Amino acid sequence: MSADSKEGTHDNGVVTVASTQGALATADKLEALIRARGLTLFARIDFSGDAARAGLAMPPSQLLVFGNPQAGTPLMQAVPTAALDLPLKVLAWEDADGRAWLSYNAPDYLRARHGLDAGFMKPLSGVVALVEAALKAS
């Protein structure tokens, strides 16, 4: 698969978009935007750092887990299985060629997966604007 073919939404519901900066710099910008918008950053998991501590090599890869309990809790109360995909997550990663990407679950995929009403989509759709803002900042 060429690097350019990664962009877009695939049948598995994952959206992947290219970043002009490295994965770690892009993750830093995403974290700053999460905090600036008053969202809660629940975790920033450094997969490549964990791999290095285990003596394994892997390109930079970090998962940011974030959300707003006031928005997510009602959704999980209405549809408990939504907790499988909440809080929201964005993966910042680099491929073998050193190109950086951001990947996340498409809101429409989450809606279909959990049978969510349209009223629950606004908090989930916020991930798209957040990723777009991080990419513009890079």
UniProtKB/TrEMBL annotation:
Keywords: Plasmid. Residues 45-107 form the DUF302 domain. PANTHER family: INNER MEMBRANE OR EXPORTED, SLR5037 PROTEIN. It holds the Pfam family DUF302. It comes from Caballeronia insecticola. This is DUF302 domain-containing protein. It comes from the Bacteria.
